[in-house]
Amino acid sequence: ISYSADKGWHDAKITPRRPLSIDPASTVLHYGQEIFEGMKAYREKDGHVATFRPEANASRFTASARRMGMAELPEDLFVQAVDELVRVDQDWVPSGEGQSLYLRPFMISNEVFLGVKPATEYLFIVIACPVGAYFSSGCVSVWVSEHYTRAAIGGTGEAKCGGNYAGSLIAQAEARDKGCDQVLFLDARERRFVEEMGGMNVMFVRKDGKIVTPPLGGTILRGITRNSLIQLAADQGIEMVEEPVDIDELFSGAASGKYTEAFACGTAAVLSPIGKFVRPTGEAVFGDGKTPGPVSQQLKKTLTDVQGGRTNDVHGWIHRIS
Ligand code: PMP
Q1: pLDDT tens digit string along 115-127?
Q2: Which of 51, 100, 283, 300 has its CA 20 to 30 A from that of 257?
Q3: Residues bearing N6-(pyridoxal phosphate)lysine (predicted)?
Q4: Which CATH number fits domain 2-131: 3.40.50.300, 3.30.470.10, 3.20.20.140, 3.40.930.10?
Q5: Predicted-complex ipTM score
Q6: 267 lines ligand 1 (CB under 6 A)
Q7: 160 alpha carbon to ligand 1 midpoint, in Å?
Q8: Class for the domain spanning 140-307
């Protein structure tokens, strides 16, 4: 779907995937006006195809567009565009545990203009690809990035824009070099409080039974999985608190048994238990570092049962497409 200031949103079409033709002076190539979403279409237990809370993705997309000075796509059009693509591609929606059709709605500025100001022409596109589980079962290991940060106050941390990822890829590469699967970012001001991971939010289980997750302060992505888990935990009588997590306290708390589990959550990762955090001065290990803890396992099952249509959709999160 194209946008121009004079015509508004127009020219919606579904075509086989093909290369885009982009003018070398397109603004996105120079100033990075690009935002995206990550969603999944699931094959439900009864064979129907559904997405999970697409209105939440549409609303975050609007917030990202606003932050980046981009045209706002009406949210019903966002949902309709995703629905129509999934309907066309429905035979590609796999069934089975951890399987889904990954959906990537995104928008770029494609005005041919080198001036430094928000563009007046945009292109909204959705592409799709079948995927399996992001991590194999077991626990992931996470490198604590003490050098790189992902988002500054007043910056674009809360927007889902490509630029945030461009700046954090090197930290992810560093984590791999250190033998870890993922990276954890700390706050940019003090390098003291846990923020989030490269493509996931993070949560911790305490011995007192509460789950703690860092509060959204404008520098963390408003994860839809995070929000869903907060509600699902409440349904089960588990108290979830949004409060700052000090990295030193996390390391000492893992050693003393104050923190018993940790896990990452996001559309791609669903809920991935974390076995250990690693930094130059030592490790914070949960359990034996390999076996997912009981709270993580239980919440993962609750979430995937809702997404896979195996349980009652009490919150109305399942958006059936076919
Ligand atoms: N944080 C970051 C940086 C992400 O890229 C993602 C994935 N979109 C998340 C958190 C989790 O968000 P969601 O649950 O909406 O996928």
Answers
A1: 999 999 999 999 9
A2: 300
A3: 160
A4: 3.30.470.10
A5: 0.99
A6: yes
A7: 8
A8: alpha beta
What residue segments make up the domains of the chain, in order of their start? 2-131, 140-307
183 in contact with ligand 1, CB cutoff 6 A: no
Nearest CA residue ID for atom 7, ligand 1:
199
pLDDT of residue 136: 74
Of 164, 196, 201, the residue with max ligand 1 atoms within 8 A of its CB, to mutate for a pocket test, comes to 201
Contact present, 92 and 128 (Cβ < 8 Å): yes
Res 78: pLDDT: 98
Residue 224 beta carbon below 6 angstroms from any ligand 1 atom: yes
Across the range 21-28, mean pLDDT stands at 97
Tell how far the Cα of 225 is from the centroid of ligand 1, in angstroms: 8
**pLDDT the model gives residue 63:** 98
Tokens of 252: 């000492």
Q: What does the alpha-carbon distance between residue 3 and residue 248 come to, in Å, rounded to a whole number?
A: 48
Q: What share of the chain is helix, strand, coil (3-state, %, to 5)?
A: 25, 30, 45
d(CA 105, CA 270) in angstroms, rounded, equals 18
Interstrand relation of 270-279 and 140-145 (parallel, antiparallel or unpaired): parallel
How many angstroms does the Cα of residue 199 sit away from the middle of ligand 1?
5
- Token pair belonging to 27: 């603004």
Angle between helix axes 75-88 and 54-67 (nearest 10 degrees) is 130
The residue length of the chain stands at 322
